[in-house]
Amino acid sequence: TNGLQSERSSFVGGRALADESAPGAPRNVSAVADESASDQITVGWSAPAVDADGGDLTGLAGFVLLRAENSDGAFLPVDSLGAEIRTYVDNGLKALTTYRYAMVSFDASGNQSSQVLSSSTRTAGIPAPAGISAADEIGRIVVSWQPVDDTNLGGYDIYRSSQSDNGYVRLAGSEGGSFTTGRTSYIDSNLAGGSLFFYKVQAIGTND
């Protein structure tokens, strides 16, 4: 307190050790499909409790999420996530498609854990109508298709275009519903002779 200082001590040397132990793998990896959004799956997980060698967890920097489509697809990286994140919403997926997920932990030194797999998860959705045909008649075209077997089916929307590859516009129905028709055929009438049109049919669920 009066400003006096001692002489410096003799020196001692030390070397910082590199972190050569990978973090443990993520735990409790789960994947749940969203019932109201056919293109979305939510992945959840818990952080590892220890390093891969069983020692104290050191230097956890984040996670890598990987995804594979169907049972034979290869796992590809989806995103790199921070160490504090525990859920990820994966969207833009295909309807009625099975996905598998894998997760890897990594630390600041670049060490990675082994992969942990989730169970397979199938996205929600309604099958697309099959067996679509168009019958040419005088002043009209009759579009028919096979019924879609799904408990959530509400009806069908019919789309028409003058080009096969784009420009499809939804046709309004005459039944007062939110979809074009509840039947498995649609009569597109009052057409000029010689008109060429292309059609697509989409199944509509009761929650849409």
Structural class: mainly beta
- Termini Cα gap: 77 Å
Oligomer: single chain
**Residues in helices, as a percent range:** under 10%
* Overall spatial form: rod-shaped
Please compute the radius of gyration using only Cα atoms: 29 Å
Low-confidence stretches: none
Number of strands: 14
Structure, briefly:
0% of the residues lie in helices and 39% in strands. It has strands at residues 27-33, 41-46, 60-69, 76-82, 87-90, 98-107, 116-117, 121-122, 133-137, 140-144, 153-161, 169-170, 185-188, 198-205. The termini are far apart.
Topology readout:
Layout lengths: L26 E7 L7 E6 L13 E10 L6 E7 L4 E4 L7 E10 L8 E2 L3 E2 L10 E5 L2 E5 L8 E9 L7 E2 L14 E4 L9 E8 L3
Keywords:
single chain; 208 residues; mainly beta; 5-stranded antiparallel β-sheet; 3-stranded antiparallel β-sheet; 14 strands; 39% strand; rod-shaped
What does this 3D model show about the protein?
A hairpin with a 6-residue loop joins β3 (60-69) and β4. The chain has strands spanning 27-33, 41-46, 60-69, 76-82, 87-90, 98-107, 116-117, 121-122, 133-137, 140-144, 153-161, 169-170, 185-188, 198-205. With 208 residues, the chain is mainly beta. The protein is rod-shaped, with a radius of gyration of 29 Å. Strands 3, 4, 6, 7 and 8 form a 5-stranded antiparallel β-sheet that branches. It has a 3-stranded antiparallel β-sheet with strand order 1-2-5, with no helix packed on it. The model has no long low-confidence stretch (mean pLDDT 91). The chain starts with 26 loop residues before the first strand and ends with a strand. The protein has no helices and 14 strands. 19% of the residues are buried.
